[in-house]
Design a protein that fits this description.
Length: about 55
């Protein structure tokens, strides 16, 4: 391969790597957000359950 071709291939590989890393970060962020929301719902449900138990 010519040096120009090698440089272009390297650029493409770096670009693809950055894109994959961005996608992984976005997926991780979405997963963390979903888990936080689920935890918040569980906490609210537990608090409501505690209030109902105390009211009885």
């Amino acid at each position: 391969m010519e040096p120009k071709e090698l440089l272009e291939q390297e650029r493409r590989l770096h670009r693809r790597l950055r894109e994959k890393e961005r996608a992984r970060q976005a997926e991780r962020k979405a997963t963390e957000k979903a888990l936080r929301e689920e935890l918040l719902r569980a906490k609210k449900a537990a608090e409501e359950f505690g209030r109902r138990q105390a009211a009885e």
